[in-house]
């Protein structure tokens, strides 16, 4: 990354944050002729996006048609609305769904090819697009986008923390103050985008809005401290739905570093069992339902169980195994002994599950998706999981043009926000695969709207 000494004092647009939303917006704004700078407080780019592992949801995509999947935007809209407890911002959701397939195609232009499909909880069709190599989608996306941003000649600085938004006499946002290793600098611009992510690693904000979750561990990177919310609030921006915090059902919390175990593993056929070796929930219900079911066991979490067939379809398992999160068993009895669950019951559970897969009917829990293969190929594997804070659905109130609204509902001129820093799209529960989609769809929209704003303010 360039040295912050090279940071100019004026640009057309400043993008704060280098996760999926920030990188997408920078590329899109650059395509439309803006001189853009990306400022990232961490030492490397990617933010929370780089930790995402399941996929990027889209409906009516060319990739789906190539796989013979006939989907429609209406179903995607209705299922996301239902998953969010009908509390989603309808206009935002409509824009999101209708621009999802376009976003997949736009990424292709930059060599970011999400051509494999899987399914996540709350969805009826395979909408989660991921790389054919099945490597985790987040790192695949952000590493390649960082390369594209540099290739485009866009200035991008790490170790640069924005501490204040600046306004002119007419209250238009016109720059930032930024802390760098070379001291505090003032950078002016015609427009500023907050793409700083959520507050899943901020104990103080979580304590304020959800004191019941303050002792939960988090899957977020340590930098997810709600900086953008604080910057926006200082300008009287409106925050919304701040108590809507998502707990992800499957995280490895046994180590100091919490690892998210991607929903795609269940999408490929993994099941959850309790200490008694029995299933206790439809594993692909919404995250809210599955998290509550695990918590209500009062058994120190649960176990994800899968076989070599599932493992072959979810490449992230190789990483989980490499860092010691995966228990191995030559057969189910061996696995049960290693993880301390009832072996006889586990064998019965798997036999019943395989029967459900064969008939396509899960009489016990009504699961209808992620049933493409029986668990019948040894060796068998298990991962110990607990729910953990994963995503903050609330945030800055924006409109479909990604403009930030103040406490009276008026647009704050020159200020935009996109990605997890914004609120409203997901309602009270985010569907797996929708966060990556949000960063690209609304990152693009932010880039487009910033270019429009700059053109009109000349």
Question: What does this entry look like structurally?
Answer:
The protein has 458 residues and is of the alpha+beta class. It has 15 helices and 21 strands. The protein has helices at 20-31, 62-66, 73-83, 90-98, 100-109, 137-151, 203-209, 227-233, 264-267, 287-295, 308-311, 316-322, 332-339, 343-359, 434-456, and strands spanning 13-16, 36-39, 56-57, 116-118, 128-130, 155-157, 161-167, 173-180, 183-188, 191-194, 239-240, 245-252, 259-260, 271-273, 302-307, 326-329, 380-392, 395-397, 403-405, 411-417, 422-423. A six-stranded mixed sheet has the order 6-2-1-10-20-19, covered by helices on one side. Strands 12, 13, 14, 15, 16 and 17 form a six-stranded antiparallel sheet that branches. A hairpin with a 5-residue loop joins strand 7 and strand 8. Helix 1 runs parallel beside helix 6 (137-151) and helix 3 runs antiparallel to helix 4 (90-98). The longest helix has 23 residues, at 434-456. The chain is elongated, with a radius of gyration of 22 Å.
Strand content: 15-25%
Unreliable stretches, pLDDT < 50, 5 or more residues?
none
The number of helical segments is: 15
Report how far apart the termini are.
31 Å
Oligomeric grouping of the chains: single chain
Structure classification: alpha+beta
* Shape label: elongated
Largest sheet: 6 strands, mixed
Helix content: 25-40%
E-strand count:
21
Task: For the largest sheet, list the strands in their spatial order.
Answer: 6-2-1-10-20-19
Q: Quote the average pLDDT.
A: 94
């Amino acid at each position: 990354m360039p040295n912050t000494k090279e940071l100019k004092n004026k640009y057309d647009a400043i993008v704060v944050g280098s996760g999926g939303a920030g990188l997408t917006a920078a590329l899109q704004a650059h395509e439309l002729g803006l001189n853009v700078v990306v400022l990232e407080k961490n030492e490397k780019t990617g933010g929370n996006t780089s930790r995402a592992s399941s996929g990027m949801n889209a409906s009516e995509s060319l990739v789906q048609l190539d796989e013979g999947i006939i989907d429609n935007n209406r179903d995607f809209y209705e299922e996301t609305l239902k998953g969010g407890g009908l509390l989603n911002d309808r206009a935002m959701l409509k824009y999101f769904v209708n621009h999802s397939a376009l976003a997949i195609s736009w990424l292709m232009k930059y060599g970011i090819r999400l051509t494999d499909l899987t399914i996540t909880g709350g969805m009826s069709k395979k909408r989660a697009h991921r790389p054919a190599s099945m490597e985790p989608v987040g790192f695949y996306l952000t590493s390649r986008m960082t390369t594209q941003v540099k290739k485009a000649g866009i200035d991008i600085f790490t170790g640069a923390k924005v501490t204040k938004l600046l306004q002119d006499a007419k209250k238009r946002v016109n720059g930032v103050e930024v802390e760098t290793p070379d001291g505090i600098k003032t950078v002016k611009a015609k427009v500023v985008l907050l793409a700083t992510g959520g507050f899943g690693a901020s104990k103080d904000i979580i304590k304020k809005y959800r004191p019941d979750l303050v002792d939960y561990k988090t899957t977020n990177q340590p930098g997810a401290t709600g900086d953008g919310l604080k910057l926006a609030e200082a300008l009287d921006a409106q925050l919304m739905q701040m108590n809507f915090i998502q707990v992800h059902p499957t995280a490895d919390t046994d180590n100091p570093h919490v690892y998210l175990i991607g929903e795609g593993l269940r999408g490929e056929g993994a099941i959850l069992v309790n200490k008694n070796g029995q299933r206790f929930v439809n594993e692909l219900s919404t995250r809210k339902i599955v998290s509550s079911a695990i918590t209500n066991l009062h058994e120190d979490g649960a176990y994800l169980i899968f076989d070599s067939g599932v493992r072959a379809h979810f490449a992230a398992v190789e990483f989980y195994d490499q860092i010691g999160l995966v228990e191995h068993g030559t057969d189910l009895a061996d696995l049960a002994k290693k993880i301390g669950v009832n072996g006889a019951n586990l064998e019965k559970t798997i036999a019943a599950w395989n029967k459900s897969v064969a008939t396509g009917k899960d009489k016990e829990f009504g699961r209808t998706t992620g049933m493409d293969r029986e668990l019948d190929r040894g060796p068998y594997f298990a991962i110990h999981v607990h729910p953990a804070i994963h995503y903050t659905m609330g945030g800055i109130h924006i409109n479909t043009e990604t403009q930030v609204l103040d406490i009276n509902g008026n647009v704050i001129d020159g200020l935009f926000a996109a990605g997890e820093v914004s609120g409203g799209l997901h309602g009270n529960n985010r569907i797996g695969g929708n966060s990556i989609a949000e960063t690209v769809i609304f990152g693009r929209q932010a880039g487009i709207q910033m270019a429009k704003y700059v053109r009109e303010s000349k």
